[in-house]
Amino acid sequence: MGTKQVTVIDSRRITLTNIEKKLWPQDGLTKAHLIKYYTDVAPYMLPHLQGRPLTLTRYPNGINSKFFYQKQCPAYAPDWIRTYQVASNTGDIDYILAEERACLTWLANQAVIEIHPWLSQIDNPQCPSQVIIDLDPAEGCTFSDVVLVAFLVKELLDQLQLVSHVKTSGATGLHIYVGLALQYSYKVTSSFVAYIGQLLVKTIPDKVTTERLVKNRTGRVYVDHLQNLPGKTIVAPYSVRPRPMAPVSTPILWRELNSIVPNQFTVTTVLPRLIRTGDLFAPLVEERQTIDHIIPLFRHLLA
Asked: Hey, what domains does the chain have and what are their CATH numbers?
C-alpha cells in the first residue's frame, strides 16, 4: 500500500496518497513533484482559472499508462471545492472550479497533469473573454516554422489594433491569446480566428493550413479556429503536459520567441523563472478589447 501524509494548505486539510508514484518514470519525477509544482505555481495560475469550468486529464499510473478525461467532479471531492453545473445530453455535469491554492494541490494528488479551462467564465458563459489562435505544427514542420507563423499572426493583430500574448503549448506549438470584451458569441470569436487563418494561408500558403484532415497538413502549421467553439478548451497557462521532462505551457515575451526551444520550460525551471519575470499573462486577466471594427471583414463567415 502506498504512503499517505496529511498536509494543510490555507486551512484546508488534504490527505496526500502514493506521492512516491513515478508519473514521469524516465525522468524520475513523482506525484510529489507534481503536487509541489501545482501548489507553488497556484498564485500565478489561479487568476487564469477563476470562474472557468475545467476539463482535467488524469494519469493515475504515469504518462506511459492509460489516462482519462474528467469533467464531472467526483463524489469523494472535498465539500469546499466549488463546482458549476451544466446540463448535457447525458445528464448534468458538475465541473470543478479551481479558485484556491488547495484545489490545485488536491487535483495534483488525483494525478491531474493537464488542466483545460473554458474560454468563458460562469458569470457570462456564452461570451468568451479570450480568443486563442492555436498554432499546431504538422509532421514535417520545425519549431522555427511555428515561430515564423506566430510573428506573422502578431503583425496581423497589431494591424488590427489588438494586443496579443503568446505562450508555449508545452508540446511543439504556440498559443496566441487576445483578451476580449464580454460581448461576443463563440460564433463570432471562432469566425474571427477562421478569418486570421485565411489571411495566413493567403500570405504564406506553403507554411500554413486550415485543413482539417491531418493527412493534408504535412509540412505546414495548422490554425484551428474550432478550438474557439463552445465546450472546447486549451491547456491553461502554467499547466503541465504529459511529455518527457514534464514540460509546462509557459507565457513568454514576444522578444523571447526567437531564442527559446519548446522543452526548456518544465516543472523544475518555470517557478524560478516566475520569480524573476512575474506572470507575463497577468494583463490578459483584465484585458477587454473590442473587435467591432474587425467584424465587417469576416461577416461573410457569420452567415
From this structure: 1-117 (3.90.920.10), 120-303 (3.90.920.10)
Query: Comparing C-alpha atoms, which of 98, 106, 96, 103 is closest to residue 73?
Result: 96
Report if pTM > 0.85: yes
CB atoms inside a 10 Å sphere around CB 97:
21
**What is d(CA 247, CA 204) in angstroms, rounded to the nearest whole number?**
30
DSSP state of 243: S
Q: Which residue type, as a one-letter code, is found at position 261?
A: V
User: What is the DSSP code (8-state) at residue 247?
Assistant: B
Distance CA 68, CA 33 (A): 20
81-125: per-residue pLDDT in tens?
A: 999 999 988 899 999 999 999 999 999 999 999 999 999 999 999
Rounded CA-CA distance 299/302 in Å is 5
Percent helix, percent strand, percent coil in the chain, to nearest 5: 30, 25, 45
